TrEMBL record:
Residues 190-327, 359-537 form the O-GlcNAc transferase C-terminal domain. Keywords: Glycosyltransferase, Repeat, TPR repeat, Transferase. This is protein O-GlcNAc transferase. TPR repeats lie at residues 39-72, 73-106, 107-140. Its EC number is 2.4.1.255. Pathway: Protein modification; protein glycosylation. Pfam families: Glyco_transf_41, TPR_16, TPR_8. InterPro entries: Glycosyltr_41/O-GlcNAc_trsf, OGT/SEC/SPY_C, TPR-like_helical_dom_sf, TPR_rpt.
Length: 561
């Protein structure tokens, strides 16, 4: 190779890039660009920077490429990925749309477009992109799972739409996946100690983990051996804390599905529990192979998977009423609530009712902006018009992205609400996040996707939560929580009553102040906050599942100890 031949240098840089030798690839690519300022060179350098985690540099390089080659779909797609990683969601969507026009047969580009639209809360556009991607390639499970997740946020999607996609996903998995062979030597003794495996990418600080962590922490070691299969890429102190409570901890983020299935089978897991559902980072393709005789989904996204190999869904009668269960493939097992309340550190005191000092009522919602649909924002605007002195506080880590703030402020502006009545707060650590609840008198649950742990956080800080459940499971999270705490009066049957309930609550500030002082204790004494009794209820459910499995094994002629 001639050291001064840019084409040969670029070719060699590409070889090093594909071999994962990024430093050598970077050096050769930069040398090539000195000799010839080419679009291909900037494209490769952008890819090297992207894979190396230098996202700003990647976007800059890829932009230089697309200026020279405006119809290069691969470069445009990579540019969109870089923009999305930087939180520049509108620019990301534009890049993906340009890439899709340049290569309309690429399902991957449309999938990335759907992801960008999902991140910006534009769920109708996201759903359209995912459906287009699936039309081009119906075999990609990630296209299906992201579509299913996005439907939870679409106000126009009903329960039939939700479950139709789940069943379609399950049918696709059944057609593509052969179940793993049964473990013939397993002792089907209904009363023996059980090996329970938990599969999650979220064994770290985040809301979903707080829902299931107390179960793992409070398992009875004389009756259950617990194995955690952790796809958690970034570990923290909560990861280490959970690891200390289980017999076996498996780091599985780098394992293929086949490798994870083999590991689960080697561990002789009796009951395998999915903690993610259709959220990003799921391992549902592992569950489609049925590596354990009993398989359960719960806590993470408890709306059903659609898999024929998933036996049970952990829920409660409010989250999934009996008349909704016929749509699910899983059998619903009722817990005291579909989640429990636990915090890794002591909570701050709720403080006094802020309205007493402020002279006005402050509503609040600390749900992420993707849940704040235009219909719920318009309803909240109507509430603020009916209560002209009231204020609204919104808080989420995602509000660091200006696009989310702009969308929400524009809705309130169109509805005639002055910007001075709206406060939007961004990311803080958990202590500061919980302290921010001291500024809120009454919390508002969004729709069509309500809040789960966010609802319980508010209650723990002495704040009543107004909710209006709809016909979908994802719209019923808060209703399940407040009912489990013994406060069903906070559940409004319709949107008019939602507004009326808010107005009625705010006319009795002394009553709100008394409620603020008692709610945390009420939560902690309930079946949701009593984490030991909650864990025992889960264990009783597992035991019943296993006894039923043993009975089926006996009926099929397998040896039962």
């Amino acid at each position: 190779m001639k050291i001064d031949d840019p084409r040969q240098l670029l070719h060699s840089a590409m070889q090093h890039f594909h071999a994962g030798q990024l430093e050598q690839a970077d050096f050769l690519c930069r040398t090539a660009l000195k000799g010839h300022n080419s679009a291909d060179g900037w494209h490769l350098l952008g890819m090297i920077a992207l894979r190396s985690g230098r996202i700003e540099e990647a976007a800059s390089c890829l932009k230089k490429c697309t200026k020279r080659q405006p119809d290069n779909p691969a470069a445009l797609c990579s540019l969109g990925i870089a923009y999305k990683a930087l939180g520049r969601l509108s620019e990301a969507a534009t890049a993906f749309e340009q890439a899709a026009r340049a290569d309309p047969r690429s399902s991957q580009i449309l999938y990335n477009l759907g992801n960008a639209r999902t991140a910006s809360g534009e769920f109708k556009a996201a759903i359209t992109a995912y459906r287009q991607a699936l039309t081009l390639d119906p075999s990609r499970p990630e296209y299906h799972t992201n579509l299913i997740f996005a439907l939870n946020f679409d106000p126009a999607a009903g329960p039939e739409d939700h479950q139709r996609e789940r069943l379609s996903y399950g049918d696709m998995q059944r057609a593509q996946t052969a179940p793993a062979p049964a473990a013939e030597s397993r002792p089907y003794d209904p009363e023996r100690r059980l090996r329970v495996g938990y599969v999650s990418a979220h064994f770290r600080h985040q809301a979903a983990t707080y829902a299931f962590a107390p179960v793992i922490i409070n398992h009875d070691p004389t009756a259950f051996d617990v194995v955690c299969y952790s796809d958690t890429a970034i570990e923290d102190d909560l990861t280490r804390r959970l690891r200390g409570h289980v017999k076996t901890w498996r780091a599985t983020a780098t394992l293929s599905d086949a490798e994870l299935i083999a590991l689960i089978r080697a561990d002789d897991i009796d009951i395998l529990v999915d903690l993610v559902g259709h959220m990003v980072g799921n391992r549902l393709e592992v569950f489609a192979r049925k590596p354990a005789p009993v398989q359960v989904t719960g806590w993470g996204e408890p709306t059903g998977t659609g898999l024929t190999t998933m036996d049970y869904l952990l829920a409660d009668p409010v989250l999934v009423p009996p008349d909704m269960r016929f749509r699910l493939r899983e059998e619903v097992i009722d817990l005291p609530c579909f989640l429990s309340f636990w915090t890794p550190e002591p909570l701050p005191d709720p403080g006094p009712l802020p309205a007493l000092a402020a002279g006005h009522v402050t509503f609040g919602s600390f749900n992420r902006p993707e849940k704040l649909s235009d219909p719920v924002l318009r309803l909240w605007a109507a509430m603020l018009r009916a209560l002209p002195n009231a204020r609204l506080v919104l808080k989420s880590s995602s509000f660091g992205n200006a696009a989310h703030q702009q969308r929400i402020r524009s809705v309130f502006q169109r509805e005639g609400i002055k910007s001075s009545r709206l406060t939007i707060l961004g990311d803080t650590d958990r202590d500061a996040h919980m302290l921010a609840y001291r500024t809120v008198d009454v919390a508002l649950d969004p729709f069509p996707h309500g809040g789960g742990m966010t609802t319980l956080d508010a209650i723990a800080m002495g704040i009543p939560v107004i909710t209006c459940p709809g016909p979908t499971i994802s719209s019923r999270l808060a209703a399940a929580c407040v009912t489990a705490v013994g406060l069903p009066d906070w559940v409004a049957p319709n949107h008019d009553d939602y507004v009326a309930l808010a107005a009625r609550m705010t006319t009795d500030l002394d009553g709100l102040a008394r409620l603020r002082g008692s709610l945390r204790d009420r939560l902690m004494r309930s079946s949701v906050g009593d984490t030991r009794s909650y864990a025992h209820a889960v264990e009783a459910a597992y035991r019943d599942m296993w006894r039923r499995c043993c009975a089926r094994a006996q009926d099929s002629g397998l040896e039962v100890s």
